Prior knowledge:
alpha/beta; Helix Hairpins; Alpha-Beta Plaits; six-stranded parallel beta sheet
Amino acid sequence: xxxxxxxxxxxxxxxxxxxxxxxxxxxFMWFENETVLDxxxxxxxxxxxxxxxxxxxxxxxxxIFTIFLIIFSFGNYAYAISIITTHLVEGQIYDVLGVRKRNxxxxxxxxxIICGFGRNGRKVSQELKARGEEYIVIDQDHEVVMNYTDEPxxxxxxDATEDDVLEQAGIHNAKSIISTMPADADNLFVVLTARxxxxxxxxxxxxxxxxxxxxxxxxxxxxxxxxxxxGGAHMAKLVSRSDVLEFLDHLSLTGSxxxxxxxxxxxxxxxxxxxxxxxxxxxxxxxxxxxxxxKTPKGEFIINPSPDTIIIPDSKIFILGTPExxxxxxxxxxxxxxxxxxxxxxxxxxxxxxxLSVLSLVRKGKISAVVAQLSKEIEADLVVMxxxxxxxxxxITGSHAMKLIHAVHIPxxxxxxxxxxxxxxxxxxPINVSVSYDVKIDWTIFIAKAYDAQVLLYLMKTNxxxxxxxxxxxxxxxxxxxxxxxxxxxxxEASSERNFPAQIQKFAxxxxxxxxxxxxxxxxFEPIFxxxxxxxTMIYNExxxxxxxxxxx
Length: 553
């Protein structure tokens, strides 16, 4: 292994000392007629400023020579000694650390080897560290290694193209190696050496041009990255497709973003899920994340795979979700027996704590279709549904919650993580003229009586006479119904014509509302329309106030 302990500086320091001592010896022999040993003694105590006594009084010439020797040797001697001392001490410390790190490299398994610790290498290490991946760095520059000995990063100082260095880094047990060195020839040698030592390792290499790209693939590399090409293409796409790139940049692999992307291989799945369909895995239902991609054993990518897609050997699935959802994913817990146990646990809790009669069951399929079918079979009166909010592609296609609400055609109570509190004492009742209000009025009266609640009517503001007339007429009808059933109510109009859904949320938060009443249109679910609809905006209100979605029944 090559070692570069700043040998030029060390040789210069030694040369300076030799010259100073030689000049001193000849000078004292000339001016004082000293022997070689006495001249060496006088030279040593002079340039080192030790200050021992002189064996005899110096002549005038000897005194003048001594003065000039002190002037010229003082700084050079101190600097030379410091260089030599630093070399010896750091060399010994590094050897100790180096041996330890090499031993760690040999003991590592399923880790990543980074060859070269320049700009690209450091960026790779940052990403791997953020993902919790274990890795080790190889670099020939001693100063780079010494500057990072206080970091948790494992280093080996050496030439990554040599077999023994890669073996010290644990090449036989590593899962991948990344070569980021600036010279294409060095990267090519790393690829050849790594492939010969570990035929199964995944090799990723930097390249500066297309010619190097072709040679690296011939040598056995799995992936090639050309930083200049990638950067240029990215900048060009920013001109015409900036929104798309901004969305992709929003996705993160490190956990630092709102949305993360995770890949899970077939071998990482429990036996219960191997050779099963995506539908049977029920990842969305359990943790709120989405399976957005599938990679076949042949390397083909399928975006937004069908729920019927079977997870077969050598395949991979790609999961999109928030960092919290990704952390919650423990596929060993997603087996059917685990789901049944969790449902049974919830059933016992409801029966013991609240005296409810509860039946639990597990069915396969899309949640909206399953709940809709079940609600018909048992002639259900109400669906209570929790939601984690919209993530990933749902922000474009619409949420699973709205799909379920439109599928069941019965009232749905949507709750988030807000505490139950003291019941429904303040009911927020928005009024516009977009939907029929008969069902909404009936349910509001029913709930208000059950909880002795006050209803806060919040009217949409408009300057259009036709709409004003419609809202006034509707409000009169609602008030008359409330009076007939002795329901307490208050009236308030929105302060602006703009963004009525946002004003409803603000009003509900200011009034400490316990429940928001909405009426869901009877039309079929339309993702593009519903993406910005009032109903969906209310369901995901920032205050997490429960929302009652009134429907026909």
